[in-house]
């Protein structure tokens, strides 16, 4: 199966979170996706730990990344 049209192909979760934080900032990201790892003492490391264990939250982050077209 080809991954040519998949905007997440070859992009790590860390790259996604970093791009979203650069674009929205932590407060803006917390408004977009209401999860504590973005609101309370946020860091990329703590967010990655949570998102790797929480599939629904990771999906929301990936969907926001694709929706904002930060991969272009």
Quickly count the helices: 4
Secondary structure: number of strands = 0
CATH superfamily grouping: SAP domain
Pairing-aware structural class of the strands and helices? mainly alpha
- Radius of gyration from CA coordinates: 12 Å
Which topology does CATH recognise?
Answer: Transcription Termination Factor Rho, Rna-binding Domain, Chain A, Domain 1
> In terms of quaternary structure, what is this?
single chain
Instruction: Kindly report the average pLDDT value.
Output: 91
- Percentage of β-strand residues: under 5%
- The shape, in one word, is globular
3D structure, described in words:
This protein has helices at residues 13-32, 36-39, 44-53, 55-67. It starts with 12 loop residues before the first helix and ends in a 5-residue tail after the last helix. The model has no long low-confidence stretch (mean pLDDT 91). With 72 residues, it is mostly helical. The longest helix has 20 residues, at 13-32. The chain is globular. The chain is 65% helix and 0% strand.
Give a quick rundown of the structure.
The protein is mainly α. The protein has 4 helices and no strands. It has a single domain, classed as Orthogonal Bundle (Transcription Termination Factor Rho, Rna-binding Domain, Chain A, Domain 1).
